[in-house]
Structures are given as C-alpha cells and as structure tokens.
Fold Nucleotide exchange factor SIL1.
Amino acid sequence: MPSVHSKIRPLALISALIVGLLICLAAPAAASSSSQQPAQAASDATELICHTSNPEECYPRVFVPTHEFQPVHDDQQLPNGLHVRLNIWTGQKEAKINVPDEANPDLEGLPVDQAVVLVDQEQPETIQIPKGAPKYDNVGKIKEPAQEGDAQTEAIAFAETFNMLKTGESPSAEDFDSGLEGLEELSHDIYYGLKITEDADVVKALFCLMGARDGDASEGATPRDQQAAAILAGALSNNPSALAEIAKIWPELSGSTCPRGDGATISDRFYQDTVSVADSPAKVKAAVSAINGLIKNGDIRKGFLENSGMKQLLSVLCQDKPEWAGAQRKVAQLVLDTFLDEDMGAQLGQWPKGKASANGVCAAAETELDDGCWDYHADRMVKLHGTSWSKELKQRLGIARKANSNLPDHGEL
C-alpha cells in the first residue's frame, strides 16, 4: 500500500512546475511594461510636428534646449527647469538651458542689486557754513524709500518690471501685465516717478506701448497701451524733476522708432495719434493725462502746438456719448491749466490763435477739427453736460479770442 508521502510528492512537483512556468511567462511582460515608459518618452522626443509638406519646417514635439535662446513654438512641449523668456514686443517665447546665477548682459550697468533699485549718491564736498547762516531746509529733496517691510517688497517689484521694460523680456505675459499694474501704482510716488523717467530705454518702452494700440494684454488685465499712458501720467504728475529728465532726452527720443510699428517716429505718434477716439474712453483719459504732464515743458509744448497736436484733443470734444464725459473733462482741464487759466499756471497768449470759426465750418466733418472750432465744441459741451468745467472752458476761450483778435482770422462766429 503506497504511503501518504509517496502520493504528495508527485503533486508538489507538478505545482512547482506550474509556478515556474507562470514566472517565466510573467517576466517578459514585466520587462515590456518597465520599458514602455522610456520608449514612449523617446518617441515623444523624436516625434516631429509638421504644418506644411516641407520637411525643413518640421520641429520636435518636445523642445530641445541648447545653451542659446531658441524660439519655442506654441504647440511644443517645454521640459521643466529651462530658462524661458517672452519678447514683450513680438510675443515670441524663447527658451534655453538654465544656468544658475548666469548674468544677463542686457542688464549690465543697470543700478539693481538683489532686485532692489539703488541710487548712485555723490558724496558732497565739505562746505564751511558761515556763522549765523539759516538752517538747511531739505523740503523738495527726493529721498529713497527705506528698504524694509512693504517698501522693500515695492522696490523688488519695481526693479523686476523696470528690467522687463528695459530689456523687452518677461517670464510670461501675465508677469508683464501684473508688473505694469504695480508700476502704475508706484509711478505716483515722487521717487519712483523720477527713477522711471531717468532711464531712456524705459521711457521709450512706455511711449512705444502707449502708441501700440493693439489691445495686447493677458486675460483680465488692463490693455498695455492704457497702462503705459497711466504710468507716464503718474510719473509726471506734480514731479518737475521727472519732467526735466524726459525733456533732456526728448530730441533723441522723439526721433526714434519702436520695435513693432509702421516706422512712424515717437514724435509722429505723440503729435498726431496719442489720443484716438477709436480707443476706449479709459485709454483716451490716460493718454490725455500723459500729454498734460509732458506739455508742461515749454519745448515739448511748442512742438505739440506747431505740429497740430491740439486736433487730437479736440476730437474728444466731438463725441456725444455719455461714456466720453470723463475724458472730455480731462481735455478741458488740460486746456484751462496750460493755456487759459493764469491762476493755474497757464501762460496766456500761446493758444488759441485767431478768431473762432463759423458754426457751419465746425459742423462739417471735414473741418470740425480746425483750431477755430474749439469754441463751437465747447458750446456743445455746455449744452450736452451743463457742467462748470464746460462753461468755464467756453468762457475763457471767448476771453482768449478777444485778447488775440489782432491775429489772423479763421472766419467769424
């Protein structure tokens, strides 16, 4: 009679053979699974995107970085850890291998240390103060904010946006738009307003953005042309030192052109096209404020008048819709404070020249922007708004016309 052990031994042997067979079958499957991920990655890396039949225009689906910046296509995948930048003029994204602590040659000479703007301070000479001399009064002296707490945060944000404008590069469109918003808030500070206008590249960038008029901005952000106009207006508001800085570079600045544009100079844009009723009332209001700050300088104001810059302002008064009331009030304030109201610092006699034009001339579309038509449109504003500013504009225009009655005639009213 067979023992129990002799019956179990064949069963154990069969079980072992089955387990061994399963292990052998599972091994290739596991190997296949483990190699699937690298194989897929390799496939993605070598896969090409072709939008045309020309093979030379194809490019890898996964961006292949080098130590030099290369354009990144919209449908390319970017590996992590690259140095990515956005050209704020063209919108072209570029990337390269990131090198920690690499110096940016475009920022050479920029007064920024650890993202905080520094001010070069000349050491004053030792002066012997006469006995009994009045105590020195530093009122009006522009002081750098203390670099601590919120002020340090503001300084860092200012420096980052300052760099974006100076180099034309930004990490992303969202970063740039957020930076412009913060810069607009800081521009009203007399110190930061001056720092903005001291750099010719930054001033040029703001003028170019203000004249771009293309509505570029990330979703939910203020259009960049409007934001740039507001920054310039803020920097120049009650800041004579900032205006003096722009006046220094104005001859060179006004003759320059922008990276993206039709070849028109900055002065062409400023005299003829800074204000356009094709823009939103909010943009126009900001642009009028920027002009108001700039023409407080005598040379810039003279060029503005000689190049018919007042026509673009008058076009704002030609609008009838209620949403234009705020911009129209800004225009009236500019005209009163600069040319008509001596109590507000206006230099009388510079403008207007000659008599008012006839109603028929000013009602015609082809001649409604003649310089003699300001009175006609001021009267329209009185009838349309009935506000104190419109009444004062009409009244002071009439006084100025009488004072200049000996100048060339534009046709009697």
